[in-house]
Amino acid sequence: MANSNKPSPAFLQHLSFFASSQQPNIITFTSALKSSLALGLNFPVSCILSLGLRALYSPSWLLLSPPNLQKLGTNHTQLEQAELTQSTYTRRELQGLVPSNSSLLDHLIDRGHVLGLWVLAADTRTGLVKREDVEEFQKGTLMQRLAERRKTGRNDILPFYRGGPISVAGHSWMVRKMLGVRVYEDE
Fold first, then answer.
1. Which of 12, 31, 33, 120 is least enclosed by beta carbons within 10 angstroms?
2. By the 8 A CB rule, do 11 and 67 touch?
3. Among residues 166, 147, 158, 168, which one has the least CA distance to residue 118?
4. CA distance 177 to 156
5. What is the pLDDT of residues 135-145, one digit of tens each?
6. What are the φ/ψ torsions at residue 117 (nearest 5 degrees)?
């Protein structure tokens, strides 16, 4: 983990996926909701994630102000120092890569982020995460790649127990019509 209070570029890149297109340094509820839906998550899970981002990174304890990426003071680096030696990783192996040399709260937040990595990136049949996906996570670019992978086709649908939709066709149609998000569309 970095000892600096400045966010790592990789972590900022990761969070910028959830930022508003009109204000690229601000994470609004709506921008986080649309981004979460683009990752293939169902509506309730996307709402919870959007609220969670605001709760974790809002500059005000009242949560009235949306998180501003330029003003974040965090040292979460998302496995930046982890040495990757395998071609695939299980959920437990990913959790084992989280360093334990930070405060308890930071350690728990990091473990939550790594669990999110497994939820979003693990193969839907095997439950394994490819090394390339972990490397993209370390760089902060995995979210864009996952959203692109889930935009068209139905080969990589998140199962419901990992936050995916119950009805893929209905979910895809609804989020496209209501919010303009394209996910799991027919090719």
1. 12
2. no
3. 158
4. 22
5. 999 888 999 99
6. -60, -50
Token pair of 96, please?
A: 């084992």
Q: Are 150 and 38 in contact (CB under 8 A)?
A: yes
User: Using CA atoms, how far apart are residues 187 and 176, in angstroms rounded to an integer?
Assistant: 15
Residue type, 108: L
Going along 65-185, which residue ranges are E strands?
88-89, 129-130
176 CB-near residues (< 8 Å, 6+ apart): 182, 183, 185
Which helix (H) or strand (E) segment holds residue 132: the answer is helix 131-139
pLDDT tens-digit map of 175-187: 999 999 999 987 6
Spacing of C-alpha 12 from chain mean position: 12
**Tokens coding 57:** 């990174």
Q: pLDDT class for 42, splitting at 50, 70, 90?
A: very high
pTM: 0.87
